[in-house]
Write a structure and sequence with these properties.
Largest sheet: 8 strands, mixed
Radius of gyration: 18 Å
Number of strands: 11
Shape: elongated
Length: 215
Amino acid sequence: MIHLHLLKHSLRAFGGLVLGGILSGCAVISAFDEAATPLDVFELRAPPGIKATSQQVLARDVIVELPRTSGALATDRIMIRPNTLQAQYLPDVRWSEPTPVMVQTLMLRTLEATGAVRYVGREPLGVSGDYAVLTEVVDFQAELAEDTDSATVRLSLIVKVVREADARIIANRTFAANAVAASTETLIVIQAFDVASVQLFSEFADWLPSALAGR
């Protein structure tokens, strides 16, 4: 049983609003678990307004591999840490996909939106692609602040671009973004995830095409 006493009151107040709520970069949909208990499902979306960094489409086929992460994040539950050593999850809510799959989806949709490469997908069109994007999800959680009714969302990814022909790493970078949730109300925390996600994946959209250019 998790001990997020700060969240309980706000979650009750939020319950009547969640079914109709729509965020700018993420959506909430209604779902039911196997016991027919209402479950609130959240989905982050690619940053709006992503534009191609160049008028020329790179003749590259890019495969975005499923990211790796720790066991605590390899789930569709939304992690919140009461301290640095403890992993808990927001009650009665989940992501629409397990965190690694959702990150892969966000990377795919973001890169597709740039229109910068010939092909991007989870699997190659042929035997292999030209480049593979390998990712480690380091942080994808909210962290409760001590002695305050607030939290900080922390996202961190280690991204490597590997040339398939010789398995050479041609580029790597760590992306990180934080956003403060003014309260621990579920919707406010999810909005902070949205803010941090837009920042991080916008930086990814700027970086990857330039990393591939001239290769």
